[in-house]
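Try it yourself: sequence plus magnesium ion, in.
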Amino acid sequence: MKTITILGSTGSIGTQALEIIRNNRDRFSVSALTCRSRKDDLIGQIKEFGPQAVSVGTAEDAAAVQAEFPQLTVYYGEQGLIEIAKMDCDIVLNSLMGISGLAPTYTAISCGRDIALANKETLVAGGALVTELCREKGVKLLPVDSEHSAIFQCLEGNGGSACGRAYAEPSGALHRPVRRILLTASGGPFRGRSFEEMRNVTVAQALNHPNWSMGSKITIDSATMMNKGLEVIEARWLFDVPADRIDVHVHPESIVHSMVEFCDGSIIAQMGLPDMKIPIALAVSYPDRMDLLPDFADGYGHNDPDSRLTDGSLDLFTAGANLTFEKPDRKVFRCIDLAYAALREGGAAPVVMNGANEELVAMFLAGKIGFLDIPETIERVMQRSSLPAPHSVEEILEIDRQSRVMAKEILK
Ligand code: MG
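Structure, out:
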């Protein structure tokens, strides 16, 4: 029995993880849950999964939850997330939104808990600190992001993957036969448009992702393709591969979730339907794989090959007819190059970029700024900022705060 703590249990990843747990009660139990604002959803989850503790966004919500469950330990706010991250469990699934995921991840790693990481901002802003602590504590950092789960799977048995095993090696030195990481991207809802054509797009248009159903922040990041930029930085830290060995491939069908090219010219790809349950399940059950598909009716499936395609399998006769790849348009989707630049510059640059982006996405979602204000302002914040490299979570959070202030000032 694996005990799981879910940070952000009422969001897209959190609810899908609970669905997996619901169908596998013999394998998993819930240790703790947290939400920011969906208190009523959390109450339903408490009734169903019986956690030992929860954390909510505000003191007011905490009092309401406590009144309903007098025996339950109830925390709230940023400190509440830290208390939950300290609690005993086998694995912490971090599906928090944005930089708020960093401090709880760092705390959970400090306590030696394995991490299933859906919160990419943790690695974008704190990659050096977090991966160093993982090595020190021998903690497994298992990617939930679909592309990174794909890369992780391609690396398994091919010189090892950085997540977990290699991080536990005291030397930290990796001699792997990896030549390149081919990071795939759907291209988002505005693929094929010119930069100016995106100037007046609406929030609803930007939220209309062609393939993936996700939270609103990551969906806007996909529309600007900052999501891919953040994922380049995430891959650099997860797999210890330099930026110039990570190539973005736009693949609109979202069937190939990423690939690894090895030194002998072999490219290994991981494919599947665009369903986040696959990477979530692998991260929480690693090193096992879970039964997410029903077995064939006859046990082997050799009676009727066509019936295999109607039971949830990826039907390559249909999907595979059009697996296409194209270069990203970097002049239009400027966020990709901003992320590469931030990664090459290092120090505070990725934190600044991430902080400005998070603030600007929230402003766009609130209808306060236009879509192109996001990339244009991030670039200006990055040019203006000369903040020193951070050496602690506190310093990262301070740089994040200052970058948000700078973004708002520029737009005034
Ligand atoms: Mg992704």
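One thing you can check immediately is this: The CA atoms of residues 21 and 338 lie 38 Å apart.
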